[in-house]
């Protein structure tokens, strides 16, 4: 599978270092990467490889030390708050631990990003309401509008998380281990939902995972990160059956032991 | 000697109006202090928390200075603070005697104590929800008011109940500078007149007020916690 022509996210020689009094850590090291519009792009790699840092650079939760991060053609590295706000409206974020607001109902959780965007785009409260209800319906949680997240199952929480991330109609959805806290069946459900979102709305999805079967299930391309660098980018098939990098080989052999995915025909 | 206590005649026609006056003075002092000190404390607590390292408006130097000031005042015994701050009380209230004069140092003390409780509650907020708010494009102030504070409401309410008891304590001491209230009432009509019955009535009323507030706070916090 080839990368689509139009890039929605682009890294050009991006590095990010964390410094504290005691030590410095190059979390992302000279990454150059192009992600096409409408792709489902996977990122795998060992703990501490820099995956989270890499995707947090896309919406400016982390600021690159050097290089360019382009989102829909715009370099976001030196944007001020208002610039970032516009970019973030265009990028949904789905978290491993859901990060829902327990003090708000499911309805209010999903409405929150719309309220933030409100000032600039003048959405009326009626439009907002119909948008929230539409999203709730889409993720199958219509009856839960007035519940608080505490009372939901993990899978339901993540559905709220996804609805919330989609609220402002973003072009890009970032998912950082979105199903790591969920059981296998729920994981598959969430992945199907993401796939559906990608297909129906053409939203580009960039997801981090520790599970190779997720990559097989939905990713068109996958990047392997190691020590802050992207050491390999390819399709699931190529990476799984013919890893070229050292990190790729070691990851794949581990996946084979853990998941036995090798037996599955692709 | 002990028997003497019981022989003291209780003159109810004097005691009863004095008791009601004392109750109303206590409620006045306590509610005003809770309202003002609670509000200032909330603001100060938010400033403390949000200027901590890695917080919303991280400013370690500013934080250190503010923390130093709060920690400087807090350990002073209130009854000493009351007289130490007398010049400021005169400057602000116009007099250093009476109920209003008592409220001024109470508000300052309450602000300090509340700020620490607010800060402690805020420290326990999961950073994930702050991050989620930022990821959706929220500003830091919006995140503070619409995400962080609502999230800590249950512990905050319990914290305020705790503060309320501390204020009751302060209000009793404020009686010594003519603040009136139940503390003053107990000393004047109970202790000084060798009439423990009066003291016990004051104790009972204070207990009732405190219990009522504590139970109400518990109820409210539980209700907010069990949001379903
Ligand atoms: N805010 C931070 N301050 C200091 N160091 C950080 C910070 N965030 C990440 N790091 C460091 O940067 C490196 C990359 O971290 P990152 O979270 O991106 O890894 P990851 O690939 O997402 O790992 P995991 O699979 O465990 O989530 C790690 O060594 C980490 O300790
Ligand atoms: Mg991570």
Structure description:
Chain A is α/β, with parallel strands linked by helices. In chain A, 39% of the residues lie in helices and 25% in strands. Chain A has nine helices and ten strands. A six-stranded mixed beta sheet of chain A has the order 6-7-8-3-9-10, sandwiched between helices. In chain A, α3 (106-121) crosses α4, α3 packs parallel to α5 (154-166) and α5 runs parallel beside α6 (184-201). The model of chain A is unreliable at 262-266 (pLDDT under 50). Chain B is elongated. Chain B contains eleven helices and no strands. By secondary structure, chain B is mainly alpha-helical. In chain B, α7 (127-135) runs antiparallel to α8, α9 crosses α10 (181-191) and α9 (153-174) packs antiparallel against α11 (196-225). Chain B has helices at residues 2-7, 12-50, 60-73, 78-84, 86-93, 99-123, 127-135, 140-151, 153-174, 181-191, 196-225. Chain B has a single domain, classed as MetI-like (MetI-like fold). Classes of the chains: A alpha/beta (266), B mainly alpha (228). The A-B interface holds A 59, 61, 81, 84-86, 88-89, 91, 93, 95, 97, 99-104, 112-113, 116-117, 147-148, 150-151, 164, 168 and B 126, 128-129, 131-139, 142, 146-147, 150-151, 153, 224, 227-228. The structure holds adenosine-5'-triphosphate and magnesium ion (MG). Magnesium ion binds next to α1 of chain A. Magnesium ion binds at residues 51-52, 176 of chain A.
């Amino acid at each position: 599978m080839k990368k689509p022509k139009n890039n929605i996210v682009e890294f050009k020689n991006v590095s990010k270092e964390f410094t504290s009094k005691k030590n410095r850590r190059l979390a992302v090291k000279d990454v150059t990467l192009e992600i096409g519009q409408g792709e489902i792009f996977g990122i795998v790699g060992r703990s501490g490889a820099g995956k989270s840092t890499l995707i947090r650079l896309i919406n400016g939760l982390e600021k690159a030390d050097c290089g360019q991060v382009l989102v829909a053609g715009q370099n976001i590295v030196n944007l001020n708050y208002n610039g970032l706000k516009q970019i973030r409206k265009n990028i949904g974020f789905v978290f491993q631990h859901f990060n829902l607001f327990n003090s708000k109902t499911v309805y209010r959780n999903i409405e929150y990003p719309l309220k933030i965007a409100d000032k600039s785009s003048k959405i009326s409260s009626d439009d907002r309401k119909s948008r929230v209800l539409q999203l709730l319906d889409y993720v199958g949680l219509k009856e839960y509008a007035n519940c608080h997240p505490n009372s939901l199952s993990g899978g339901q929480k993540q559905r709220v998380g996804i609805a919330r991330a989609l609220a402002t109609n973003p072009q890009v959805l970032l998912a950082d281990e979105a199903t790591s806290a969920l059981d296998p069946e729920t994981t598959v459900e969430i992945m199907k939902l993401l796939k559906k979102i990608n297909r129906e709305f053409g939203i580009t999805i960039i997801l981090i995972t520790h599970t190779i079967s997720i990559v097989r299930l939905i990713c068109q391309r996958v990047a392997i990160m190691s020590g802050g660098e992207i050491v390999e980018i390819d399709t699931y098939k190529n990476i799984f059956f013919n890893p070229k990098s050292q990190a790729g080989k070691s990851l794949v052999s581990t996946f084979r032991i853990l998941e036995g995915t090798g037996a599955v025909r692709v | 000697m002990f028997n003497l206590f019981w022989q003291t005649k209780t003159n109810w026609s004097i005691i009863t109006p004095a008791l009601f006056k004392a109750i109303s003075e206590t409620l006045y002092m306590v509610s005003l202090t809770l309202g003002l000190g609670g509000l200032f404390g909330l603001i100060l607590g938010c400033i403390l928390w949000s200027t901590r390292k890695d917080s919303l408006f991280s400013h370690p130097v500013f934080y250190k200075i503010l923390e130093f000031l709060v920690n400087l005042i807090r350990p002073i015994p209130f009854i000493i603070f009351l007289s130490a701050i007398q010049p400021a009380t005169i400057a602000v209230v116009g007099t250093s005697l009476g109920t209003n004069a008592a409220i001024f140092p109470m508000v300052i003390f309450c602000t300090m104590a509340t700020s620490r409780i607010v800060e402690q509650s805020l420290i326990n907020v999961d950073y994930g929800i702050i991050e989620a708010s930022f990821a959706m494009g929220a500003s830091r102030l919006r995140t503070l008011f619409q995400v962080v504070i609502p999230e800590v409401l249950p512990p905050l309410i319990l914290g305020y109940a705790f503060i309320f008891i501390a204020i009751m304590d302060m209000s009793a001491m404020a009686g010594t500078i003519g603040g009136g209230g139940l503390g003053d009432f107990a000393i004047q009509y109970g202790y000084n007149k060798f009439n423990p019955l009066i003291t016990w009535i004051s104790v009972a009323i204070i207990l009732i007020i405190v219990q009522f507030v504590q139970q109400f706070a518990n109820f409210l916090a539980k209700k907010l916690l069990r949001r379903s």
